[in-house]
Specification:
By secondary structure, the protein is mostly helical. The protein contains one helix and no strands.
Length: 62
């Protein structure tokens, strides 16, 4: 007797979804890489996240 065809169809659907997800992930990585390359560095070479901070205890935000 033949195997259940539903199992094969389900597996094929699962595999197709996995391939699509992998391709979307690759596209997102490439987009992030391109965005990072086009990002302009600051003129003084400082990290923008650290700009304005000074060593030692920081003053309160409020």
């Amino acid at each position: 007797m033949a195997a259940h065809p539903k199992a094969t169809a389900t597996k094929r659907t699962r595999e197709r979804a996995k391939i699509e997800k992998r391709n979307e992930k690759i596209m997102r990585r490439e987009a992030r890489k391109k965005a990072k390359e086009t990002e302009l560095p600051t003129e003084d070479g400082m990290d923008p996240d650290l700009a304005g901070m000074e060593p030692g205890p920081q003053r309160p935000l409020y």
